[in-house]
Structure formats: C-alpha cells, structure tokens
Amino acid sequence: MRCLKKDDLTAYLDEELSGNEIRRVAGHLEVCRRCREKLEYIRNAANIVAGKLELLRPETIPDKVFIYPPGETARPAPARRIKRVFRTSIRLPVPAFSLLIILFIFMSVILVRQHRQLSRLQAPAAATPQQAALFLVGSSYFQKVTPEIDLSGFEPIRQPRIFVTGGGKQ
Amino acid sequence: MNDENPGIAFQSLYKTYFKRIFAFVYSLVGNGQEAEEMTQETFLKLFLHLENHGTLEKPKSWIYRVAANISINHLKRRQMYLKILSSQAQKETSGPDLEADLIKREEIERIRRAVEKLPPRDRVILMLYQDSLSYEEISRTMKIKKSSVGKILCRARIKLADKIEEGAKHEMLKKR
C-alpha cells in the first residue's frame, strides 16, 4: 500500500478532490497512521499560514482607485454663460463705472494741467490785457508778426496752447 | 461575459472585483500606493481588452491573471525586501495603544520577511487561494495544471509556516 502524496493530502484538506478521490484518500487515512500524521502536519501549517496571511491584508481599502473608471467619461464642466453675468444687478454697473472713473481721471488730469499752466503766468503788473493774453502765444511768433510789442518783460511759458487772435497777423 | 457595451461591462466588473484585486495586490506588495497603481493597471488592461475584443470569458480568472502577472513582474523587478521594510518602518501609528501597534507591526514585518523568501509565483498562488479562489480558478489564472496547484500550495505553506515559527522563536530569544 503506497502512502498518499502531500499534494493529495493538501487537496483533500482544501476539499478540492472529486467524490472518488475523497473516498480513496479517506479509506487510506483510516488504515495509515503515518499519512494521518502527515495530514495533521499539513493542516497545522495551513492554519498558521491562513491566520498570518490575513494580517497582510490592507486595513482600509479606498472606495475607488481613480475617480472615473475608463468606462465613464468625466462630466464636462458647465459652459460659462456670459449673458448671465451681465444680468445680475451686482455686476452690471462695473464696466460702466470703470469707464466713468477713467474718464473722470483723464479730465481731471487735463484740467489740472491747464490750471497749472495758467497759474505759471507771471505777466508784468503793467501788462495790458491784450499783452497778457499774448503771453500765451510763443513769443518768437509774435515778435515776427508784431515786432513793435515788447515782450521782454514777459516770461515765456512752454508749449502754450491757447491762442489769442486779437493782435494777430496784419 | 459578452456585452455589447464594453463600458457597461467594464463598470460591472470594476465594481465586483476592484476591492478584491486591491486587497490581493496589497497583500503581495505591502504598499498602498503601489497597490493602487497596480490595481489601476489591471483595470486599464481590462478596459482595453473589452474595447478591442468586446468579450471576456471567465472574467474572474482573467482579471486575477493580469493582477498576478503584474504582481510577479513587480516583485521580480523591484527590491521588494528593502522597500517593504522601509515602508513598514515609515508607517506612523496614531492609535492610543502604541505598544500593541508596534507589536502588530513587527509581526507583520516578520510575516512579510518570511513570505519574501518564497518564489514570486508561489507567493501569488498562496495569495490567490487566500483570496478564496478554487484550484480550478487558480490553475486557469496561472495557466498551470490543477494538480500542480495542490503541490505548490503544500510546499509554500510548509515552508512559510516553518519560516514564521522560526522568526517567532528568534524574536523570543532576542527579547530574553
């Protein structure tokens, strides 16, 4: 009588044998003490291993490995509705206000510059209104046109822009 | 599995096997991040297969086979021994009972060191059985004879049990 192989005993232990094979192994085990000891040894090892291998399993398993499995496609982001932005009462005045502010700043700058230009005029106290007005014009031009007017007492201003045509070309 | 829509078939398989495959791979590599990557790779291959072929007979065995091959390649390619030890060492315990956690971690390390001494294929077969696959399914997954499954399992269990007990005795001697 040949003893059973370890793999047969393992399969018997794991209940992986067919009906005939189970009967064969069981019949042999009844009469063979050595095979019974071998089976006990294999059963013991299997129990130790099964218990220890459970410890290697993860404590937590993530719900998903990736958010969208390749079978699904990501939902497209909702299209931005530009019209909606302008419908809201809060956002509506912003572009208009920005333009007004810019315009206001621009006009202020111009007016301030003009005011400064005007304030720099130092016409001699004895200058007539006409002569004072001529101060606003480049002196070289008026010396050509009206050489009889003495403009030496007047301090020229740079880049005058206001033209007085009262004493113009003759 | 013969589904006209591969996307639906994939999703069904994904929901059924994802956690099992992750646990299986994690048991082999011992690293959560790597287990995630390998699980993802497995399901990507599944998706591509369904897309190209449309059908899949015996999907369980197929998925486990892919996961097993990826795991075996991973175990052979990398220096798993040092990686596993270092990943276990870096793991921080946040539980109130630090000593119990430390003992558990040491035991897990000991078990991993013993498992590492097995050939990669034997390790995978052991884990497949641990994951409740039958001999028939394991033989289909690993493309080996059914009779070989019992042989490999027997050898692996005995070797592993000896290594684990040897490691436990060694630890006891160290503590004395």
Q: Any key phrases for this structure?
A:
heterodimer; A: 7 helices; B: 176 residues; 8 helices
What's the short version?
The complex is a heterodimer of chains A (170) and B (176). Chain A is mostly helical and 170 residues long.
Describe this structure in words.
The complex is a heterodimer of chains A (170) and B (176). Chain A contains seven helices and no strands. Chain A has 170 residues and is mostly helical. Chain A starts with 5 loop residues before the first helix and ends in a 25-residue tail after the last helix. The model of chain A is unreliable at 73-77, 138-147 and 159-170 (pLDDT under 50). Chain B is an all-alpha fold and 176 residues long. Chain B is built from eight helices and no strands. In chain B, helix 2 (32-53) crosses helix 3 (59-77). Chain B is globular. The mean pLDDT of chain B is 83. The A-B interface holds A 6-11, 14, 16, 41-42, 44-46, 48-50, 52-58, 61-62, 64-66, 69-72 and B 6-8, 10-11, 14, 18-19, 22-23, 26-27, 30, 32, 35-36, 39-40, 43-44, 47, 104, 107-108, 111-112, 115, 126-127, 129-130, 134-135, 147, 149-151, 153-158, 160-162, 164-165.
